[in-house]
Design brief:
The complex is a heterodimer of chains A (424) and B (375). By secondary structure, chain A is an alpha/beta fold. In chain A, 17% of the residues lie in helices and 29% in strands. Chain A is built from eight helices and 31 strands. In chain A, strand 4, helix 2 and strand 5 form a beta-alpha-beta unit. The longest helix of chain A has 11 residues. With 375 residues, chain B is of the alpha/beta class. Chain B folds into two domains: 264 residues, Spore Coat Polysaccharide Biosynthesis Protein SpsA, Chain A, CATH 3.90.550.10; 84 residues, Hexapeptide repeat proteins (UDP N-Acetylglucosamine Acyltransferase, domain 1). Chain B is built from nine helices and 26 strands. In chain B, the strands form six sheets. In chain B, strands 15, 17, 19, 20, 22, 23, 25 and 26 form an eight-stranded parallel β-sheet that branches. Chain B is globular and about 65 Å long. The termini of chain B are far apart. The interface between A and B is large, with 35 and 36 residues. Strand 15 of chain A pairs antiparallel with strand 14 of chain B.
């Protein structure tokens, strides 16, 4: 008989559209982070470090990179005889086939996967946060309170609480009320989207709500449990937790890693973060290179200057190039004598020689001001910029571009140049 | 699946100074992120050899740790696998491996049970890439009993630490001299310690040697039968070196600062595989000044590093200078340290303010175990 006390269901199907072109061809959990990692590595590493060896990863949007990255789970020791990691895509049934229409709907469609492990508890996770958390400590809390559902919550500054869904609790941590983005918040405990359910509670709620369109944990399942008088508790998490939902918060979280002693420290022996390491060769720093305040992944070759930057595996920064306050992802190349300021170069992109990125005046992006802002400049995955091009701030480039695509070899601040991907 | 592999990784070498005090030569760190044995194992794996035995005896703990999982080299299949054989006491035998031939003799059952017709024998201390199937093709087409992989080295190189080969115009080996002493007219075609031989013939030769209490593969089989048996030389192209002394070890690592060597091993197909250590990216703090250096993951740099190779998880303190050095894994170099022409032994701690200098061309091996964290 198969028996697992707690299994994890990791929701990794979302697009993460506020990351703009970073997620045009990959799901958000598969986006690179911190030089050598991908965002999902943190949740997966937390699972195995917490002793959870059975993880269902629910995928839907652009799953190729995610599937390749996870494989059979070897980097996280999740290649197990019983349990381990399973990729759970939407599937066709004998009478119907449907996409995952919401977070809870996705879990509902995989009831049979969970039943197989005969769990007492089910942990529901997102695949898009940067944090180290012991889910076992949360489970201990859940058991001690005899809870039906436990929601992991983080205290946020009171003035920011109105941006979150907050919970109001009694002294024991039992939640009495929920407020979604309240104008005048009465609490600063924000839900992190991490839940532990008693298996029967989850099972029954999902079946009860199976016809709910777009069935979602926050909007439907938790209110259903609350309205039925179940014991819902808030587990207060006080460690580092970063939502990298927007391009700017993604950039900020990366930049925090290069501090002298980072708040989120990857160099501690305890609670290591694992990732699929397809590049293992050492990095080479050239004779004329200068590097300060950077983290750099395996196999990178730096011949120019890099300051305050996060540089992924296999990146080449050529002679005379200068990179400041930027994120250069895996296998990208910055050409000779090019300068990059607050740039995000997605994987395998090429910036030609004698280019400049992120220069000129500050001007709001014309199409997507809510995505491309704070002076950031994005080069999408596999994109190419030819030599001698000047690129302004709050811009995005996608596709293989040629000199003729640019007016006077320039892309003005606030503009987008899109040859591949969504034009609207 | 015509080949099985035997890696001879048993040896110590007194020319390695105290670098092999705690590990076998085959476990010596190479090229910033690898160990010597990775090169032979990767070449075998990349040549689709699926069954490989590593024969080890001297100080094998760190080698065993490195080989604790065979998945890094893609062995560990149902058909084949990576086998590590250390000497065991049996009813018939109570000896350590008394030589390379004896180490094979003590594991003859492994050879007898295989079904692959040919065996590739290689030492664990060579740094190279090789397609063993090409050697096998040559072996079969030349009709050789034994094929020895040779490498032609520059005339200026002292070959007295190698075995040298003389060949005729058909590349048949006419003479084999192990560690020649009078080197005025020495051949500069040297043996790489890589051989291909038919499995049944190997069993026969090893049994014969064992019955005569002869234990060394080179002198008691290769040199002894060089006239009776047809031995041919396959000349290897590309980079090859073996780490048979501390200086050779230093130079082999420094070679990786050469763009051509780096390109050959790091960028050209096929890749060299190694155990993955899950360390964070290398970190350069204010004060870092790194030029012409190789760094592995997990390093934290606060000082100056020039013309050096830093292995995994090296910490370099503030205002410290490191020039022309090989710093092995998990070393902690304190503040205000000066190191030049040194090999710093792994897991050591160099106290703040220390200074070590070797001579150019003759690196000093530094083993310092100061207290790492002062509370």
């Amino acid at each position: 008989m198969i028996k697992k006390e707690m299994i994890a269901m990791l929701l990794a199907g979302g697009q993460g559209s506020r990351l703009g072109f970073l997620t045009s061809t990959v799901a958000k959990p598969a986006v690179g982070f911190g030089a050598k990692y991908r965002i999902i590595d943190f949740a997966l590493s937390n699972c195995i470090n917490s002793g959870i060896d059975t993880v269902g990863v629910l995928t839907q949007y652009q799953p190729l990179r995610l599937n390749t990255h996870i494989g059979i789970g070897i980097p996280w020791d999740l290649d197990k005889n019983i349990g381990g990691v399973s990729i759970l895509p939407p599937y066709e049934g004998s009478t119907n086939a449907q996409w995952y229409s919401g977070t809870a709907n996705a879990i509902y469609q995989n009831l049979r996967y969970m039943e197989r492990y005969n769990p007492d508890y089910v942990l529901i996770l997102g695949g898009d946060h940067i944090y180290k958390m012991d889910y076992e400590a949360m489970l201990d809390f859940h058991k001690a309170r005899n809870a039906d559902v436990t929601i992991s919550c983080i205290p946020v500054p009171m003035e920011e609480a109105s941006r979150f869904g907050v919970v109001i609790t009694d002294d024991e941590g039992r939640i009495s009320e929920f407020e979604e983005k309240p104008a005048n918040p009465r609490s600063n405990l924000a839900s992190m989207g991490i839940y532990i359910f008693n298996w029967k509670v989850l099972h029954d709620a999902l079946i009860e709500l199976k016809n709910q369109p777009g069935c979602d944990f926050g909007k439907h399942v938790i209110p259903y449990c609350h309205n039925n008088g179940m014991g819902i508790y808030a587990y207060e998490f006080t460690g580092y937790w970063k939502d990298v939902g927007t391009l700017h918060s993604y950039w900020e979280a990366n930049m925090e890693l290069i501090d002298l002693v980072p708040v989120f420290n990857l160099y501690e022996e305890f609670w290591r973060i694992y990732t699929s390491a397809d590049v293992i060769r050492p990095q080479y720093i050239g004779k004329n290179a200068y590097i300060e305040r950077c983290i750099i992944g395996e196999g990178a070759e730096i011949y120019g200057v890099a300051k305050n930057s996060v540089i992924g595996p296999g990146v080449i920064i050529k002679e005379g190039a200068e990179v400041y306050d930027s994120i250069i992802m895996k296998d990208s190349i910055v050409g000779n004598n090019s300068r990059v300021y607050k740039g995000i170069l997605a994987e395998n992109s090429r910036l030609g020689s004698n280019c400049a990125m992120g220069i000129g005046e500050e001007r709001e992006n014309e199409k997507w001001p809510h995505i491309y802002n704070n002076g950031l400049t994005v080069l999408a995955e596999d994109s190419v910029v030819p030599d001698n091009v000047m690129i302004g701030k709050n811009t995005a480039i996608s596709g293989i571009t040629e000199a003729s695509d640019y007016e006077n070899n320039t892309l003005q601040s606030g503009k987008c140049l899109i040859k591949v991907g969504d034009q609207d | 699946m015509k080949l099985i592999g035997i890696v001879l990784a048993g040896g110590n070498n007194n020319k390695m100074q105290n670098l092999t005090a705690k590990r076998a030569v085959a476990a010596m760190p190479i090229g910033g992120a690898y160990r010597a044995i990775d090169f032979v194992l990767s070449s075998m794996s990349n040549s689709h050899i699926q069954r490989v035995a590593v024969l080890t005896q001297y100080n094998s703990r760190s080698l065993n740790e490195h080989l604790s999982s065979s998945k890094w080299w893609d062995f560990g299949r149902k058909q084949g696998g990576l086998f590590v054989f250390t000497p065991t006491i049996t009813a018939e035998n109570s000896f350590w491996y008394r030589g390379t031939a004896d180490s094979i003799a003590q594991n003859l059952d492994f050879l007898r049970k295989c079904h692959e017709p040919y065996v590739a024998i290689a030492s664990g201390d060579g740094i190279y890439k090789l397609d063993y199937n090409k050697v096998l093709e040559y072996h079969v087409s030349s009709g050789a009993d034994i094929t020895i992989v040779g490498k032609r080295v520059d005339k200026g190189i002292d070959v007295s630490r190698f075995g040298t080969l003389e060949v005729d115009e058909e590349n048949r080996i006419t003479d084999f001299v192990e560690k020649p002493t009078k080197c005025a007219k020495c051949s500069h075609l040297i043996s790489t310690g890589i051989y291909i031989i038919r499995r049944r013939l190997l069993i026969e030769l090893i049994e014969q040697a064992a019955s005569e209490e002869r234990f060394d593969f080179v002198s008691d089989i290769l040199i002894r039968y060089k006239d009776e048996r047809k031995m041919y030389c396959y000349e290897m192209e590309g980079y090859w070196t073996s780490i048979s002394s501390a200086d050779a070890y230093f130079n082999a690592n420094m070679d990786f600062l050469d763009p051509e060597v780096r390109d050959y091993f790091f960028n050209k197909y096929p890749d060299i595989h190694s155990k993955v250590d899950d360390l964070p990216p290398a970190k350069y703090n204010p004060g870092a000044n790194v030029k012409n250096a190789l760094l592995a993951s997990g390093c934290i740099i606060n000082g100056t590093v020039e013309n050096s190779v830093l292995f995994k998880k090296v910490y370099v303190g503030n205002n410290t200078t490191i020039r022309n050095c090989i710093i092995l894994n998990d070393s902690y170099i304190g503040d205000n340290v000066y190191l030049e022409n040194c090999i710093v032994e792994s897991r050591g701690t160099i106290a703040s303010g220390a200074s070590y200098m070797g001579e150019p061309g003759h690196a000093k091996v530094v083993v310092e175990k100061s207290e790492r964290y002062r509370i």
